[in-house]
Amino acid sequence: MVSNLDELGAYAYSGHSVLMGEQKRDFQDRDYILCLFGKRERDAKKKYLLFVSKGIEEGEKPELTGGGLIPSVGGWKRLKDLRESGQRVNSDERILGGSEFVERVLMQANEEWERKALIKKSGIDLDSLLEKVGDHFCVDVKELKSGSRSRDIANARSVLCCLGVRNLGLTCVTMAKALGVSPSAVSKSIARGRNILQAEDIEDKLMKSQ
User: Fold this and answer.
1) CATH, domain range 122-207
2) CB under 8 Å, gap of 24 or more: what pairs does 99-107 form?
3) Residues 126, 28: Cα–Cα separation, whole Å
């Protein structure tokens, strides 16, 4: 259990030092996390530190400790009683919660994996998605990569970011490099793109292969 921010910064399996700019790891999307706390990096870091400090002050919470089979059924005795009665329970050490919740989460995760696998199998990639989104919004691919903030281009880019991250499984960093914008800009565009997709009901159209 980490007792202060210094210990957290020194902990090898924490992303805290990356968020604070003390280390850099390519696989960690620092900008995405910080943008959840504020628009400017300095303010975001302050709010993040306040958030973490409050969590440390609250100490260890039994209801959030562990995970998987034993905690979800109420301990070893409860597990033994269930097994003796012939009842089966679902568990996963990655998920905190009871058997029904674990089963629902795993089912949703499997459905999401299958959906992405089908999209990948259909041959849709970032290049083809760029073309489809550009055609729909009547925007040239070069304009999508220009960093322009005009409304039509910004809307198209937001939809592209949302579909790229959510459906193709690309990272914000990958999208940022492809579009010539910052990872934090991609992160902010995702929510906007989701709203546009829902309002215009165009996701299925854009994700269909030619």
Assistant:
1) 1.10.1750.10
2) 99/72, 99/73, 102/72
3) 21
Q: How far apart are CA 16 and CA 35, in angstroms?
A: 15
Output the pTM of the full model: 0.50
Q: What would the pLDDT profile of 56-97 be if each residue is shown by its tens digit?
A: 887 766 545 555 544 554 554 554 555 555 554 455 455 555
Three-point CA angle 34, 38, 40, nearest 5°: 90
For every residue of 113-178, DSSP letters joined together read HHHHHHHHHTT--HHHHHHHHHHHHT--HHHHTTT---HHHHHHHHHHHHHHHHTS---HHHHHHH
H helix count then E strand count, the chain: 13, 0
* DSSP per residue, 69-97: HHHHHTSHHHHHHHHHTT------TT--S
Residues of the chain with CATH 1.10.1750.10: 122-207
Q: Are 168 and 160 in contact (CB under 8 A)?
A: no
Q: Residue 27: what are its φ and ψ, rounded to 5°?
A: -80, -10
Burial level of 72, CB count in 10 A (0-12/13-18/19+)? buried
